[in-house]
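User: Can you predict the 3D structure for this chain?
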Amino acid sequence: MDWTDSRYYRVATDGSFRLDRQDPSFNGELLDKGSAQVFLQQGVKHLQELQDVLYADGRHGLLVVFQATDAAGKDSTIKHVMSGVNPQGVEVTSFKHPSTKESRHHWLWRYGMRVPARGFIGIFNRSYYEEVLVVKVHDLVRYQNLPPNLVGKDFWERRYVDINAFERHLANNGIRVVKFFLNISKEEQRKRFLKRLNERSKNWKFSEADLGEREHWDNYQKAFELMLRKTATTAAPWYCVPMNSKWFGRLVVVKILIEELKAMKLAYPTLGTAQLAALEKGRHALEG
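Assistant: Here is the predicted structure, written as structure tokens:
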């Protein structure tokens, strides 16, 4: 398998995706951590160049969504992949439990407020997909003050439909949505939790709530799989990234982002005759 072929990670849009058939330990076969670091640095530099053109072009925006289990590496992936881009052109949003004000609005409201403008990159560290994950696994719908007639057998199906419509709306307005599910094994999660407990510098990352969520591993895996099946579309693709080796997963993410930006066919604006004349006038003034 050629690890550079992004089609390997892209979730099928025909509803056939099976999470248990994905290998979270895949790391490019012969690729090692040292060479991956070199490729990553090259990729980050290329991403920086494309971001400049994205801003100058001004016709497209990019929304990047990250979803995963605890300890899968969302924060570190965002940190490493976006390390070289201009921070003025990127906004990272980490969504927590909704506030009282947010809860009074429709459930997509607070996410729509943080969608990037054209020319910018927005990153959602967790997102509206929590509404079909944690809300589903823990049956939190009963706390959302919805009219009883709206909470029926087709409730979750309607949420998937709403998500697809929302993402299609963004695509129709020049905002490309690219989604990454960072896939780790249950054993790898256990090792990372132990590392947080055993290394003092990582103690702050550990929470008892993480262990509580781990008890729901199987239910989350089912929710993730259904989420990926129902919301993988051409307009807003999902990529299932193997993350047992963080260094490899980061490389896959940066490669896919580069491909997605290139597919926009970005270009610096073409200057008209009057603008070129003004540039020439400015040049003469400064040189004279």
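The first helix runs from residue 33 to 57. DSSP finds eleven helices and five strands in the chain.
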